[in-house]
């Protein structure tokens, strides 16, 4: 119980996904780390089983991982939850607690001009196969199977707007014309930055983008 209480005290929920809180602010994380769990639930017990998927986990504080697993099993789970009578993998983001309100100063913002073009990828454990290509006012995101194209408008050297333009996946085409507002909140180094993004539904997400080696 002490571990669970410690977890609740040192992290605060940021958003929800699939009826389970998946994003937390935490003081012992330098940037963003990930924990992926197999989570099983039923209509009587709610979440009854949680198993760590190590190959999809970058966070190393085992005490907090254990606390999260126990916390999920003690929290009420909706009767209509998508995990009822089944199991599914859920990735939790553990975010540096300073990121919630972090902004760059003028000098740091100026340094981000180098990120306006080039090839990048996401550090997110589930999206590392996505290649981001920026050329002029266009951003393309590609995997081996799918491709998405956005209009890219830079508001400043450290903020930009992405507007959905084209999708190879038919079910996503309803998003065309919607926007995502992105702010670079930490200049990590000449190849890496942390961002805070707000989508058209008002959902805020945090992530890390890395420049791909040439």
Explained architecture:
With 214 residues, this protein is mostly beta strands. Helices cover 13% and strands 48% of the residues. It contains three helices and 13 strands. The chain has an eight-stranded antiparallel beta barrel with strand order 6-7-8-9-10-11-12-13. It has a five-stranded mixed β-sheet with strand order 1-2-5-3-4. Helix 1 crosses helix 2. The N terminus is likely disordered.
Describe what is shown at a glance.
By secondary structure, the chain is mainly β. It contains three helices and 13 strands, in the order H-E-E-E-E-H-E-H-E-E-E-E-E-E-E-E.
Question: Pairing-aware structural class of the strands and helices?
Answer: mainly beta
Tell me, briefly, the overall form.
globular
Low-confidence stretches: 1-18
The radius of gyration computed from the alpha-carbon positions, rounded to a whole number of angstroms, is: 19 Å
């Amino acid at each position: 119980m002490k571990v669970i209480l410690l977890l609740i005290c040192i992290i605060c929920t940021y958003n929800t996904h699939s009826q389970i809180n998946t994003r937390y602010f935490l003081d012992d994380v330098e940037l963003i780390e990930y924990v992926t769990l197999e989570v099983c639930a039923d209509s009587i017990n709610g979440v009854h089983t949680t198993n760590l998927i190590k190959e999809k986990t970058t966070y190393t504080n085992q005490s907090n991982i254990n606390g999260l697993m126990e916390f999920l099993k003690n929290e009420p789970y909706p009767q209509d939850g998508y995990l009822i009578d089944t199991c599914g993998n859920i990735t939790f983001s553990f975010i540096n607690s300073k990121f919630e309100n972090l902004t760059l100063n003028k000098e740091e913002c100026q340094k981000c001009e180098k990120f306006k073009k080039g090839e990048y990828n996401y550090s997110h454990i589930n999206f590392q196969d996505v290649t981001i290509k920026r050329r002029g006012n266009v951003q393309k995101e590609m995997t081996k199977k799918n491709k998405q194209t956005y209009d890219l408008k830079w508001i400043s050297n450290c903020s930009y707007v992405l507007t959905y333009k084209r999708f190879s996946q038919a079910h996503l085409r309803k998003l065309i014309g919607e926007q995502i507002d992105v702010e670079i909140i930490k200049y990590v180094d000449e190849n890496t930055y942390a961002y805070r993004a707000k989508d058209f539904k008002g959902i805020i997400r945090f992530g890390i983008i890395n420049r791909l080696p040439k």
